[in-house]
Design brief:
Order of helices and strands: HHHEEHEEEEHHH
Distance between the termini: 77 Å
Largest sheet: 6 strands, antiparallel
Helix content: 40-55%
Strand order of the largest sheet: 2-1-3-4-5-6
Number of helices: 7
Radius of gyration: 38 Å
Mean pLDDT: 82
Strand content: 5-15%
Low-confidence stretches: none
Amino acid sequence: MTEQTFDAYLYQLVEGKQKFISQIMTSKSPVRSAEDVDEVALSFAEVKMLATGDERFKEKMDLDMQVAKLKVLKQSYLSEHYDLEDRILKYFPQTIKEYEERIVGYESDAALAEQHKPQGEDKFCPMTLKGVTYTEKADAGEMLLAVCKENPLSNPVEIGSYRGFKMEVYYDSFNTHYCLNLCGKAKHKVDLGSDALGNLTRIENEIGKIPARLEAAKTRKAETLEQLANAKTEVLKPFAFEDELKEKNDRLNALNIELNLDEKDTPVMDTEPEQENEQPEKRTQGRER
């Protein structure tokens, strides 16, 4: 490598690429993101400063890379900042509202199920289907299968009630089986099969999941409220490297002025005037054939 030649710039480019590669190819925990700063094309003025060996030019090239990386970090900060603002204004309030609605529905349905507990050895409540009340578990299961076959459409059809919940049945053509909706304050879906008693067990299991879903909704609401509070705190934080970026950018601008690099290269123009009064080519008068 020869001193005060173009070699210094070439090795500086290789150094920048190596720093980028080293962020990924490492035995340690890799970084979440890596920025590859675009190479800056040299102007004729920069080539001239390289040839003279001016130390200010080396400082300028270092500042170019540092400022570019800081600008990448600031752009990432602004992107996250705008995303936080959007989530604070739209996502978190909407999500909290949805959980509040679920909580109200689950609380009401849990109370409804508590009022109509299964009785007897079979742990079965009377089921009403097509206006007829069935007190025997086996009869209710068989009738439920028969009612499903009478409604092969994908639109839910009300067929009766069980434990205070209205029941709707419809055919899921995609999964090719019947489904049942238990309708209280909220809707609770039950996938039905071909076994009569098994379907009644599935219905009981779905009702039994309501208290757990109520607690899960309350937990998710509390977590979302905490996320909202954290987001409001984070969105107020300024860019951590703002002062450093301003300082280095000011110094870079000052160096560009000192080295006359703030001016664009003057293109070489053809100073020879165009011959506007050029005589047109004479046409040879000929006879028409």
